Amino acid sequence: MRLPIFSGLALIAGVGLCACTENTTSTTTAPAAAAIAPTAAPSEAAVAEAQPAEDQAASELKEHHRHHHLGGVTQFVAMSLDTLGTDEAKRPQIEKLQSDLHICMAPVAKIEHELLLTYADGVAAGKIDAAKVDASLALLSTTAAAVHGCSVATLNKLHAILSPTERQALVDKTQAHWEVWRNVNHEAEVGGKENGGRLAELIKELSLTPDQVEKISATLHTGATSGPAKFDPAKGEAHMQAFAKAFAGEKFDAKSVTADANSHLVTHGSRRAAHFYETVTPLLTPEQQKTLAEHLREHAAHQPQANQAK
Predict the structure, then answer these.
(1) Which pLDDT tens digit goes with each residue over 10-22?
(2) In a designed cystine with 165, which of 22, 39, 51, 187 is the match (CB 3.0 to 4.6 A)?
(3) What does the alpha-carbon distance between residue 207 and residue 89 come to, in Å, rounded to a whole number?
(4) 89: which DSSP letter?
(5) If you average pLDDT over residues 224-230, what whole number do you get?
(6) Got the DSSP string for 217-252?
(7) Cα–Cα distance for residue pair 56/306, rounded to 1 Å
(8) Residue 270: band (very low, low, confident or very high) from pLDDT cuts 50, 70, 90
């Protein structure tokens, strides 16, 4: 399984989002614009060829949001800056602010790294250490709550240097990340076999037999009531809308945006992942457990946010 490498393709192709930018450095006169030949429509072959790449990008983005829960909205903002089109003169400032956001999330990244390794060790051994996982999840929750306070000054600086068009583009991208996160960590059916779902991905990764698929799906459905606490999507949506409205406006103070939703997103996403791996592990063959453990270790090593925090 190739781990996601996030670039413009991952967000634009995967989510279908177009970057809106404000170009303040060049102008085109009406006659010149009229002389430009219209762009030819893409051929059916070109569209067909592009589709697998778009599907792959969407799958990679979903895979990322299933496994990495570093700072709720702060993480969505940091990821969105990768594809935010701006005046090149601003790019060094924006990259510095993005790095500062990653630094704020670094303590959460460290715990998440250890948590993924705990899953991997448990999967390889055939049983996950639930007590160790619970302790890490509790620490993750309290650590994630501090991300908002750490990022307040950085978000305020970011708002100050962006134009109105750039601020709206960033809001749109952030909301697109939220929609993907919400789909894979809440709306996707527990034990569902739909294409793009976690179980469907596991079928491909581990070559599960039909009997295994039925048993895993049934067990996940049965264990849903004893799984992670019910997520309140309205709370997350309210937080996203409050951030979007405030950040797109002329005046913005990150302190006014409630912080508890960040921790809510981080904790729920991680608990859902823990429940999935604790449920699935006993139903795999030793060879499948080995393969899945290797996959989880790859995710643990793949920490682009932490790597950028220099």
Answers:
(1) 443 334 343 333 3
(2) 22
(3) 49
(4) G
(5) 56
(6) HHHHHHGGGGSSPPP-HHHHHHHHHHHHHHHHSSS-
(7) 24
(8) confident
pLDDT, tens digit (0-9, with 9 covering 90-100), for 154-203: 999 999 999 999 999 999 999 999 888 888 776 667 677 777 678 888 99
Extents of the domains making up the chain: 71-308
> Which own/partner pairs from 282-285 qualify as long-range (CB within 8 Å, at least 24 positions apart)?
282/126, 282/127, 283/212, 283/215, 283/216, 283/219, 284/123, 284/206, 284/212
The residue type of 252 is F
d(CA 112, CA 69): 8
- Supply the pLDDT for residue 47: 41
Which residue has tokens 């993750």?
Answer: 140
pTM of this prediction?
0.74
Encoded tokens for 89: 């003169």
79 CA to centre of own chain: 8
